[in-house]
Each structure stands twice: as C-alpha cells, then as structure tokens.
Design brief:
The protein has 205 residues and is of the alpha/beta class. The chain has one domain (5-204): Maf protein, CATH 3.90.950.10. It has helices at 5-9, 21-28, 52-71, 101-113, 148-155, 184-188, 192-204, and strands spanning 14-16, 35-36, 80-90, 93-95, 118-128, 131-143, 177-181. Helix 4 (101-113) crosses helix 5 (148-155). The relative contact order is 0.17.
C-alpha cells in the first residue's frame, strides 16, 4: 500500500473485522494504521443457497455489519471497515476450519490424495461511509500426494486447526504445496493486491 493511498488512509479510523493473526500480519506489512475488532457474526449461512463467491462475500458482509454495530456509537465512528472470509473448495465441496482431529485428517486426506487441486475463495467487503464494495479473490492450489503417516504427522502438528481447508500455506504445509495459480496472500487469508486496488478506487472516486 504505497503513498499517497497510505497517507490518506492513515488519517482515517480503519478497522479490520477479523481476529485472524495471519490477516493482521499481512495488513501490518503495508504500514497501514488500523484496529482489529473480532466479529460476533454467527457463520451459519447454508452453503447450498449460494455460489462459492456469494457465500464468502455474504459471510464477510455479516462480519462488517456486526463490527459496525459494535462501534457505530463511538466518539470517532470508523470510516473504513474491512471484513474477510476464506473458504477452501475441492471438487465442488466447501471445506471450512476443522473442529476435530478426525475432521482435519479427513480434509487433508482429500486434499492430498485425489490429485485434484483445491481452490481458495476469499470474499472481501469494504464499508467506506455508506458505500459497500464486495469482491472475491480466487487461487488454485496444487498439492503433492501424502502418505497416511505424513497426513497424521501433519495433523498432529496442530497447524490445521482454525484454518480454512485445514492447512496453512505459510507454515508446514508449504512443504507439500507443489504450486499455486493466483495470489499467495489470498491463500493465507487476505488478497492484498486486490484489496489495495479496491481501496484506491473507492478513495479516489
């Protein structure tokens, strides 16, 4: 996020509506001044009612709306709120954050033994005043094949828990990701290039 966009944003109250440490680190790398607020939005949308892009965008929108409600009566109301949601898909099915060891094993087994690439969708919603902008970034991830022992060893590191699709591409999983097509940051959870371009467009229009 280069000047003059950064200078302009740093005069505003900017909120990242996410508790994800990975997203926070990506955004911090730009030197943007922002605050982090966790959303209490109940992520209970029914996947069958949405396309993948619609699903992540609507979930991100719910996070933005929730955080706005938390902060709308503050003395300094946020000028920009950024909400994000990431989902991993494989062969037409969504994979969120595994909640048990068994679920993590099942997810990683599917991702690393079928020979089919997984596709990461990240929906981003930006609220700037009364204006709302939504977009989805898509990245395709090709993984090498893992043995059963390798899958169990990876799951037992604890890395899959709390991550969409059960893997962290910036962590141990990088050792079995063969290649990607698209934005690497998107797989971590925040498509920084597209976010920057959208902010530039919104602030200059």
């Amino acid at each position: 996020m280069l000047k003059p966009l950064l200078d302009k944003l740093n005069t505003m109250r900017v909120i990242l509506a996410s508790s994800s440490p990975q997203r926070r680190l990506i955004l911090e790398s730009t030197k943007l001044k922002f605050e982090v607020y966790s959303s209490n939005f109940e992520e209970n949308l029914r996947p069958e009612n949405y396309t993948f892009s619609e699903f992540v965008e609507e979930t991100a929108f719910g996070k933005v709306q929730d955080v706005y409600e938390q902060l709308k009566n503050d003395e300094m109301v946020p000028e920009i709120i950024i909400g994000v949601d990431t989902m991993v898909t494989l062969d037409g099915k969504m994979y969120g954050k595994p909640t048990t060891r068994e679920e993590a094993i099942d997810t990683i087994t599917k991702l690393t033994t079928t020979g089919i690439p997984n596709v990461v969708y990240t929906g981003v919603v930006i609220k700037y005043g009364e204006r709302i902008e939504k977009f989805t970034a898509v990245t395709t991830v090709y993984m090498g094949r893992l043995s059963k022992d390798e899958i169990l060893a990876y799951v037992d590191t604890g890395e899959p828990m709390g991550k969409a699709g059960g893997y962290g591409i910036q962590g141990i999983a990088s050792s079995f990701v063969e290649r990607i097509e698209g934005d690497f940051n998107n797989v971590i959870g925040l498509p920084l290039y597209q976010l920057t371009q959208k902010l530039k467009e919104m602030l200059n229009s």
